[in-house]
Specification:
By secondary structure, this protein is of the alpha+beta class. It folds into 6 domains: about 80 residues, Orthogonal Bundle (Arc Repressor Mutant, subunit A); about 70 residues, Beta Barrel (OB fold (Dihydrolipoamide Acetyltransferase, E2P)); about 80 residues, OB fold (Dihydrolipoamide Acetyltransferase, E2P) (Beta Barrel); about 300 residues, no CATH class; about 55 residues, no CATH class; about 110 residues, Nucleic acid-binding proteins (OB fold (Dihydrolipoamide Acetyltransferase, E2P), Beta Barrel). The protein is about 30% helix and about 25% strand. Strands 5-6-7-9-8 form a 5-stranded mixed beta barrel. A hairpin with a 4-residue loop joins strand 34 and strand 35. Helix 7 packs across helix 8, helix 12 crosses helix 16 and helix 13 packs antiparallel against helix 15.
């Protein structure tokens, strides 16, 4: 949690202390006032101290000095606050999750020294879908008795104020629209004479009526029926609307996309003789990248390889200042759901002229990289060219061919294309292993939908083909950052900060509960994390250690300032390889075109002037997309499990909080809550050192990482909420641990009430 910052004392520039004019506060008094007020404008400050005339002018000068010294920061249009302070109410992003699953928020527009603040559990978290990483929230900041700050959720942001996605509810003669966002209290009342054809449970987009008053139910008008609440395909629509994902394109952008023409060799190098191949997921519709490799013929680089990565030249079609550019910047990235994609570019481009289709001429910005036999990159060169993909392959197809099971398509490509690619990758892997990027294992799930129904939820396979494409893309991204830095060109970096000392301390405390030693004083290094993961890979705690190491990391983001990429262990890194689906990559492409003299459609002065703002815009867009994709996945899984209420499942405790235990199911990866009030008759205390709920009377424990069996009590598809009942027994008391003491504040949070804990609302069964 955020601790109060110590009061700063500011000394005057001269050695002789000057007394302020009569009535004018000194700097410390002014800062103390702002600390108590939270924020205040110049006029309000002057009124508080009774200042007039010359004193008001002196106050303005004092505020300017304190701003220059970094003691004050602007808040809003006219307000000021102590630098690093928090307002009473503000818009904040969920930026991290600690080892216990607690969420932390940071003001959306704030200085770097504004701390992250713990988000207190709120009403409806269990059944209405708890906030998660990437969510944007309106919160109230409250100072606790300890001097720390806590954020309390007021509402999740994103849903349009004028349009509501909701479910039709019919009760006698009344027809209402109940918002799917359970934080929203505004039900809309429909005119029965025009809404009689609607059915109970219809999922609709409605508009607040123009005659809506301040009090009572608001009149509404249904704009569109998009499905039913029990239709699994509705999950993505709910997520899109709830998180404010921009949909569709302006008419002008659509016209620009349709006016695009086939590329020619004008101003381009002919690369069509190089047998590039695309390797993508089996259901991929757009193809950003293609690869090709061959042995280096340079006698001074024996055993070395030349690796080509060709990327769709989106900058040739999406020009700065165009309608396409404006729409793409607003969207920031494509958003992917199991049943649909909300693309950053119109399909004419994303699935057409900008997609590296097999046997079709395509504009490309390619990079030729040279590696020596130890996998070290010796040099690179960017080329703007015209290419033609020799084949479109899936990851599974390419991997099967390498494993000795080629099909009719991959067979002829095995010797001339696929084997050289794999040999080049295995050389590059030597360099990657020496660099030692973080080796955290992901546990992604793939939701398969057939005929509008969820057919299965499976764990995504991790093939060598995935790692090959990943490493070649990483190296291409490094080349982009290096080339732009060498030309002193502004660019948007992909950055990932080193874990904070507090996070590493929490990791060390957790590992101590497993009797694993970690030197708390050592600086965080990827190689040290990898050693821990490798040493525990075969242990019963491997999965949870992997999860806690992941939570120890900071969240990657876009920035115009470079701090390196800790996770990849790289000093310079920028996204270059996916311009069809990420605006960041498009900006990097434009930067390369301008810096390397590859055309007149590169980065503009306007692009450069707003590059810092663009980095913030697309970082928010990325987190918005992550939150929407996660929420949709939760709803799909809840729909998949809805008919299995009462069944038991194997799982693991992945989050320990004051209000309960978060459980991840082994088979589906579904997350749900076991409320603390259902764990037994005694009080349970959240021990943040042990990362466990500990019984006050018996000392029995529910620790992070414990494998458990649970029964599904409730699955609510419309919200994605899952509630479980614990079937397993807690662990025996730790004889070395002191018996917990229950404070009054925690007692209120965990006291059994015969059902769900206070502050957790049960969702309706439907």
């Amino acid at each position: 949690m955020a601790k109060l910052r110590p009061t700063k004392t500011f000394k005057p520039q001269s050695s002789k202390k000057e007394r302020p004019p009569a009535g004018l506060p000194d700097k410390d008094t002014l800062i103390a006032f702002l600390r108590d007020a939270g924020e205040s404008g110049k006029a309000d400050i002057a009124r508080h101290f009774g200042l007039k005339g010359a004193d008001r002018r002196a106050l303005r000068e004092m505020i300017r000095e304190l701003e220059a010294q970094g003691a004050l920061a602007k808040r809003g249009r006219k307000g000021f606050a102590e630098a690093g302070s928090l307002p009473p109410v503000g818009v904040a992003d969920v930026v991290e999750r600690d080892g216990d699953g607690e969420l932390y928020v940071k003001l959306t527009k704030s200085d770097d020294d504004v701390p992250n603040v713990r988000l207190a559990p709120s009403k409806g978290e269990a059944s209405a879908g708890a906030p998660g990483l990437g969510d944007r929230l309106l919160v109230r900041f409250e100072r606790l008795e300890t001097g720390e700050f806590e954020a309390k959720l007021i509402k999740r942001l994103g849903q349009s104020a004028h349009k509501v996605l909701g479910v039709i509810r019919k009760h006698r003669k009344e027809i209402r629209v109940e918002p799917v966002d359970r934080k929203s209290k505004d039900n809309l009342v429909l005119d029965p004479s025009v809404a009689h054809d609607l059915k109970d449970g219809d999922l609709v987009i409605a508009q607040v009526g123009a005659s809506a008053g301040r009090y009572g139910p608001k009149p509404g008008k249904v704009l569109e029926v998009v499905g039913t609440e029990n239709d699994p395909r509705a999950a993505s629509l709910i997520a899109i609307h709830s998180h404010g994902i921009p949909t569709g394109f302006s008419e002008e952008a659509e016209r620009e996309a349709k006016a695009a023409v086939e590329p020619t060799l004008a101003g381009r190098e002919d690369l069509r003789q190089l047998p590039f191949v695309t390797i993508d997921p089996v259901d991929a519709r757009d193809h950003d990248d293609a690869v090709f490799a061959h042995p280096d013929e340079d006698e001074t680089n024996k055993g070395g390889w030349v690796v080509w990565v060709a990327i769709a030249d989106v900058a040739a079609y999406v020009r700065p200042g165009s309608a396409l550019d404006r729409d793409a910047r607003e969207k920031g990235n494509s958003v992917y759901f199991p049943d649909r994609v909300e693309p950053m570019l119109p399909e004419t481009l994303s699935n057409g002229l900008c997609s590296l289709r097999e046997s079709e001429n395509r504009a490309t910005l390619a990079v030729r990289m040279v590696f020596d036999k130890s996998g070290r990159k010796k040099g690179h060169k960017f080329v703007r060219g015209l290419m033609r993909s020799a084949a479109k392959l899936s990851y599974e197809q390419a991997q099967s061919a390498i494993d000795g099971q080629p099909d009719d398509k991959s067979g002829p490509l095995l010797e001339p294309i696929l084997k050289p690619l794999w040999d080049a990758y295995r050389t590059m892997k030597i360099g990657r292993d020496a660099r030692s990027p973080l080796a955290i294992e992901s546990d992604e799930r793939r939701i398969i939908i057939r005929d509008g129904e969820i057919a299965s939820i499976t764990k995504r396979a991790s093939l060598e083909a995935h790692k090959l494409i990943e490493e070649m893309m990483v190296q291409a991204n490094v080349c982009a950052a290096e080339s732009l830095e060498a030309k002193r060109s502004p660019l948007i970096y992909r950055v990932h900060d080193t874990p904070s000392l507090e996070k590493v301390q929490n990791l060390a405390d957790f590992l101590q509960t497993l009797e694993i030693r970690w030197n708390k004083g050592e600086a965080p290094q990827t190689s040290r994390f990898n050693k821990l993961l490798e040493e525990t890979r075969e242990s019963p705690n491997a999965a949870i250690i992997n999860e806690v190491v992941l939570r120890t990391q900071m969240q990657a983001h876009y920035s115009s300032d470079n701090i390196g990429h800790f996770g990849l262990n790289l000093a310079k890194y920028a996204h270059f390889t996916s311009p069809i689906r990420r605006y960041a990559d498009l900006i990097v492409h434009r930067g390369l075109i301008r810096a390397l003299g590859l055309g007149d459609d590169g980065l503009t002065d306007q692009d450069i002037a707003q590059i810092k703002d663009t980095a913030e815009v697309i970082t928010h867009a990325e987190r918005r997309a992550m939150a929407a994709e996660r929420d949709a996945t939760d709803r799909y899984i809840a729909a998949f499990l809805a008919d299995r209420v009462g069944a038991s499942f194997e799982g693991r405790i992945t989050g320990v909080t004051r209000f309960g235990l978060f459980i991840k199911l082994t088979d589906t990866g579904a997350d749900g809550l076991v409320p603390v009030s259902t764990l037994g008759a005694e009080f349970f205390v959240h021990d943040d050192k042990m990362h466990a709920l500990v019984g006050e009377r018996t000392g029995k424990r529910w620790p992070l990482g414990l494998g458990v069996e649970v029964k599904l009590v409730e699955a609510t598809p419309v919200t994605g909420g899952l509630l479980f009942e614990m079937l397993s027994e807690p662990m025996a008391p730790d004889p070395k641990a002191p018996r917990p003491r229950l404070g009054a504040r925690r007692q209120a949070a965990v006291k059994p009430r015969g059902g769900l804990p206070k502050g957790v609302r049960r969702g309706k069964r439907r």
